[in-house]
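EI: anyone free to look at a 320-residue chain?
SC: sure, send it
EI:
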Amino acid sequence: MNNRKVGNILASYGIILVLFLLILAFSILTPRFLMRDNIFNILRQVSIVGIICVGMTLVMLTGGIDLSCGSIVGASAVGAALLMTKSNMNPVLASLLMCLFGVLLGLANGFFIAQLKVPPFIATLGMMTSVRGIAYIITGGLPVFGFNRAFTVLGQGYWGVVPIPVVVMFITFVLGIVFLSQTRIGRHIYGVGGNEEASRLSGVQVKGIKYLVYATSGFMSALAGIVLLARVNSGQPNAGTGYEMDVVTAVVLGGVSMSGGQGKLIMVVVGVMIMGILTNGMTMLTINEYVQQFVKGMVLIGAVALDRFIKTRKMRQSAT
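SC: here you go
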């Protein structure tokens, strides 16, 4: 096997090797790491970020980014909590309304980006700040609690031995994978990210695709907010703060190009697990939280640098 083939294999599947090396390292450093309870704990911890990653992957495949995801998580959580406590609304209806709220915010992002040509980074950064402000305004900066305990089953219950949030994450990933790989719209999403102008000339509704991916991202963020609300049994206006970094890092680690057009949702699962294992392992080793933040930041920089290196390498190979 020549060096080019080895390089291509490592570029495509090296992240899986990283995952196994992390598991091996933490299992040696702390024997409790591979216990069943801890494995399910990791899966439960990554479930919120994993749900958001499905929407973020669609956005990044078009060459965009959605920094408002964490704020939508928080606003959706407190919105549902207020509807259930102040209006005595049915939990299912409250959850559906908040998911619709997430879709509307995603459509607003799509409007700014597709119609007004605002760069995705700026548009979603502004939305992130504004939506977080909404969460604080409607709660007065105070947590919301006191809703029906039966609602917490969504975040704290089990389906057999598997936590329900993990089941929700699994379902969203399966639906996302099928959507991207088996539908024409999924192929159009890749096309828009690969070459937007060529897609437009071939008849693809580029603006419609952008509306769709940002609306989906908003929906997934709102759904994650509902699951988080059920898990912690309290609507916190600061919920989801910093999630955007974890989500982007997991998606890029999973091989989705920051430039769009390349990446597979199935590999994003690996990226999500790496982020979860890093956090869990460092916590079990009692590593300082600030050190954990530093490590996560370096992982993000490394993932983006690797993405650029792989893309440059492929361009050079195609030129020769």
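EI: The longest strand covers residues 158-159.
SC: 👍
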